[in-house]
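WARN retry 2 of 3 for item q-0093 after timeout on previous attempt; input resubmitted unchanged.
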Amino acid sequence: MPRVVHFELPADDPERAVKFYEQVFGWKIERCEGPLDYWLVTTGPEDQPGIDGGIMRRGDGDVTRNTIDVASVDEFAEMVMKASGKLVMPKTAIPGIGYIAYCEDTEGNVFGIIEEDPSAE
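OK item q-0093 returned
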């Protein structure tokens, strides 16, 4: 059964958001290398329940979203569309991780589906 494995928090001022979440929850947050304003969030040790996430610069229409781990982005994107959902961002490679796509459910909620590639590590 696929599970939620990542969250994303949009922020008008990512540096301010980073400071807030570090101060309030003690989360470890590091900026990713590359052209995007994106910070990886570690919310706790791997041996404890919970998920990690990211903070990104807010764009038009950005909302908090969850990402679900799936065996195949292609297969699950097809299932989303067959169930009256929409594909809002096609399958995209994430170097060193795998593939991601963004979908919309029947209620207008956007979520990610991610396929991790073991050979990418």
